[in-house]
Amino acid sequence: MSVHPISATLSTTALALRRAGCVFAEDEALLLHEAAASPDELSALVERRVAGLPLEHVLGWAEFRGRRFAVDTGVFVPRRRTEFLVAQAAALAPRRAVVVDLCCGSGALGVALADASDTAELHACDVEPAAVRCARRNVGDLGEVYEGDLFDPLPGRLRGRVDVLLANVPYVPTADVELLPAEARVHEPRVALDGGGDGLDVMRRVAAVAPEWLAPGGSLLVEAGERQRDTAVEVLRAAGLTPRVLVSEELYATVLVGTALRIT
Ligand SMILES: C[S@@+](CC[C@H](N)C(=O)[O-])C[C@H]1O[C@@H](n2cnc3c(N)ncnc32)[C@H](O)[C@@H]1O
């Protein structure tokens, strides 16, 4: 019986990955073997992973809410914990929702929400050209992806009409960026991580303008660190939104929802 040369080296690959510090070496080895079309390609993939590139950048995709999203090098890898934010958004989205995914990175959040809810319109934007290119591939004809600073590139006709405003903004305090694992610190763009002095600078900018774009009763959803929770609540309240905090112990996720007043 002939043995495929790639499958013959599965345990060797796992060993190389384990030596490089990969905790889930066996699982990763399987994924790399699946992805490689030839022994040369496998060597190249393993080499990149051993050199410290995030697995998702090596594979070119990340799994988010059970679906594979393209993630190019230089684009923030959507995190498992952010699935909680999308689940909360799906729970509060009205029928025929107008959804904006601000600071969209790969675009995974907006697409996952469209999968899970009745989305009439999806608009996504990011300031990073690499993220915008990647999001355009993931969003496809489900919606529009724009490039620019926060709300700047959005069409004006969305003002006052947004039912769900997803904004997984960067929220790592500047001084903590150096403490992040190398996979994030070295391989994800600083603009995707650094949230300024207390980590909430971008959130403050989003919250300040969000009420202009939200529909009556519409909600802004942001993620924050547990220690940022109380300040983040005040940020939303100061912007005129009604804040709520939602926590997933399982995913170690803290989500803040800021809801605009309903007109009665
Ligand atoms: C933490 S990442 C989140 C990406 C994506 N939402 C996700 O959860 O996978 C933050 C994203 O915000 C983008 N960003 C940072 N500052 C921005 C700004 N001023 N305007 C638009 N996008 C910005 C970054 O390029 C990055 O893609």
TrEMBL record:
<protein>
    <recommendedName>
        <fullName>peptide chain release factor N(5)-glutamine methyltransferase</fullName>
        <ecNumber>2.1.1.297</ecNumber>
    </recommendedName>
</protein>
<dbReference type="InterPro" id="IPR029063">
    <property type="entry name" value="SAM-dependent_MTases_sf"/>
</dbReference>
<dbReference type="InterPro" id="IPR050320">
    <property type="entry name" value="N5-glutamine_MTase"/>
</dbReference>
<dbReference type="InterPro" id="IPR022446">
    <property type="entry name" value="MeTrfrase_put"/>
</dbReference>
<dbReference type="Pfam" id="PF05175">
    <property type="entry name" value="MTS"/>
</dbReference>
<feature type="domain" description="Methyltransferase small">
    <location>
        <begin position="82"/>
        <end position="198"/>
    </location>
</feature>
<keyword id="KW-0808">Transferase</keyword>
<keyword id="KW-0949">S-adenosyl-L-methionine</keyword>
<keyword id="KW-0489">Methyltransferase</keyword>
<dbReference type="InterPro" id="IPR007848">
    <property type="entry name" value="Small_mtfrase_dom"/>
</dbReference>
<dbReference type="InterPro" id="IPR004556">
    <property type="entry name" value="HemK-like"/>
</dbReference>
